[in-house]
Design goal:
Layout lengths: L4 H10 L6 H22 L34 H8 L5 E2 L2 E2 L7
Length: 102
């Protein structure tokens, strides 16, 4: 697939940017180069290649740096009341917000 000058003009219109004639020519070449690279990547046979969770995972064991999921606050009536005290409007333990979609 290759983009024409009209395609680049249309993309520029969608992006709400104004391009000069020189810019159109340059971006047409740049975008077509990218599409060629994408087509080359798509043609690579990846059958049997396991997906990686991180680019460095193929070189070494990479541990995700996530914290342990530990409950640090208790769900008590007093705690909920303290949290709800900041609400401008609330009922039955939930925040009331103005309707924004009709």
């Amino acid at each position: 697939m290759s983009l024409s000058n009209q395609d680049v003009k249309y993309i520029a219109h969608l992006a709400a940017i104004e391009l000069s004639a020189e810019d159109l020519t340059q971006y047409e070449g740049d975008l077509n180069s990218l599409l060629t690279i994408f087509a080359n990547l798509k043609s690579i046979d990846t059958e049997g290649v396991a997906p990686l969770t991180h680019p460095l995972a193929m070189l070494e064991e990479v541990q995700l740096r996530l914290r342990d999921d530990i409950v640090t606050e208790s769900d008590t009536v007093e705690h909920r009341a303290a949290l709800m005290s900041n609400a401008p409007a609330q009922t039955d333990g939930v925040f009331l917000v103005p309707k924004v979609i009709e």
